[in-house]
Write a structure and sequence with these properties.
By secondary structure, the chain is α/β, with parallel strands linked by helices. The protein has 12 helices and 18 strands. The relative contact order is 0.15. Keywords: Signal. GO terms for molecular function: hydrolase activity, acting on carbon-nitrogen (but not peptide) bonds.
Length: about 450
């Protein structure tokens, strides 16, 4: 073979392979790249409006404003406060009188702190719930000795007052709506999640009382609203106690307290978010808890900050509204804030905590098997996620050849004509597909 033929032969062979592939209906164009967009419809950020405790004006004031603006939210409710609920808070354990008598001679310590912290909030005396809350907060800060002293003070007061009766620990201000009304809101797309029976400090409850608070609340919600409302939960006071998280993460697909995903950077309410920082993760969840004195300017800045990037999910945590509940925010400020968010709806996806979690997980756990022919691109989607929980439609972006002028999207017997768009990388189409809906296809249907 001459030197010329030695270099010419491989080039001829490559040309023949490309021609044969094209004649068989396959194209080697690199323009068929497909990606699942970070947020539905190519939006830049996500916001979840979440509420704790289920106080009255969350439903009488805030929810109507949300529905007026087309927004859906997440309400973490204490089911023991709902009038027709079947299950109320109760103490499980030894005879309370025996425990009370022991406190006179045996100081609280690491061996008995959970039993005593579980009991004290039920004692019929002023400040009983406060002793429980303060000891629980102190315990979570790692100051175990001080937490024990707080309980000793509480039980000393109980002995002084000769307390012998247990009462239901009232923790929510004002009245609470009932299940019939909650069902209506759930059917409209709002999420209702577990927030325990009676809002205790779970970190200082013993196992039986801790599990009761989570499981009984879960079971009540399932009875009244159905299993579909059991996707996410919030353990009270935003606890991240490791023992509590271990129990709760086994019960629910998602927790607002913690999202242990390798692709997610969590910045909870006590953390700081730097909009210019590279966190090295695919997504960021940034929680903010507006309080009664939080300025509108600061609240608006949170929204502006997430729009400077395309990976951030702002989770807003509300409590009291218009005079009812902890750190109640006035109605006019809530309305102005929600209208500010709605004004940026082109770039922000407002959705329940459940929906955003599901979309992110589906995007990160969906594999695509692509087949490319001359006038058609087929995608087979695969995922190990449970289809009962993960049914969010995903937004896809596929680059197409420049000579494709009219494209249809086909899945599950449905056909949709797509708009052909262009960016710096070429022509593309954008479409929403059901990851559980079977194979999908994009077809070039002519000029």
């Amino acid at each position: 073979m001459s030197l010329t033929n030695k270099f010419l032969f491989p080039k001829i062979l490559l040309i023949l392979i490309l021609v044969l592939n094209f004649q068989n209906g396959f194209s080697q164009e690199p323009s068929f790249k497909t990606e699942i967009l970070k947020w539905p419809d190519g939006k830049k950020a996500a916001i979840s409006l979440t509420y704790d405790d289920g106080t009255y004006n969350q439903f009488r004031v805030a929810l109507p404003i949300m529905e007026e603006l087309g927004m859906k939210g997440t309400f973490y409710i204490n089911t023991g406060e709902i009038p027709s609920s079947q299950t109320r808070a109760q103490f499980f354990g030894r005879d309370p009188k025996v425990i009370l008598a022991e406190t006179a001679s045996i100081p609280t310590n690491e061996e008995n702190i959970f039993e005593r912290a579980s009991l004290i909030r039920f004692l019929d005396m002023p400040g009983a719930v406060s002793y429980h809350d303060r000891s629980g907060s102190t315990y979570e800060q790692g100051r175990v000795e001080q937490a024990c002293k707080i309980l000793d003070e509480g039980f000393a007061k109980a002995r002084e007052l000769n307390v012998s009766e247990l009462v239901y620990p009232k923790i929510i201000d004002g009245p609470m709506i009932d299940w019939d009304e909650i069902r209506k809101y759930a059917s409209n797309g709002h999420e209702f999640g577990v927030h325990t029976i009676s809002h205790p400090r779970l970190a200082v409850l013993d196992e039986k009382n801790l599990l009761f608070e989570l499981e009984a609340c879960r079971d009540e919600i399932e009875r009244e609203l159905g299993r579909e409302q059991l996707f996410s939960a919030e353990c009270p006071f935003g606890t991240e106690n490791e023992r509590v998280m271990e129990y709760a993460l086994k019960m629910f697909p998602a927790l607002r307290n913690r999202m242990p995903e390798a692709y997610l950077e969590e910045i909870n309410r006590s953390g700081k978010f730097d909009a210019s920082q590279d966190y090295g993760k695919e997504y960021i969840q940034w929680q903010r808890g507006p309080l009664s004195k939080t300025t509108p300017e600061l609240m608006n800045s949170w929204v502006d900050d997430i729009l400077t990037r395309e990976d951030t999910w702002l989770v807003l945590v509300f409590h009291g509204i218009e005079g009812i509940g902890w750190e109640a925010i006035p109605e006019d400020r809530i309305r102005a804030y929600f209208e500010y968010i709605a004004g940026k709806s082109k770039d922000i996806w407002v959705a329940p905590f459940r929906d955003v979690t599901q979309y992110m997980r589906q995007r990160m756990n969906t594999n695509m098997i692509k087949t490319v022919k001359k006038d058609m691109i087929s995608l087979k989607l695969e995922s190990d996620l449970d289809p009962y929980w993960y049914r969010q439609k995903l937004t896809f972006k596929t680059y197409i050849p420049t000579d494709w002028k009219s494209v249809t999207f086909v899945q599950g017997g449905k056909t949709e004509t797509l708009e052909v768009q262009k960016d710096a990388d070429g022509s593309f189409v954008q479409y929403n597909a059901d990851p559980n809906g079977g194979e999908l296809a994009l077809k070039n249907v002519g000029q």
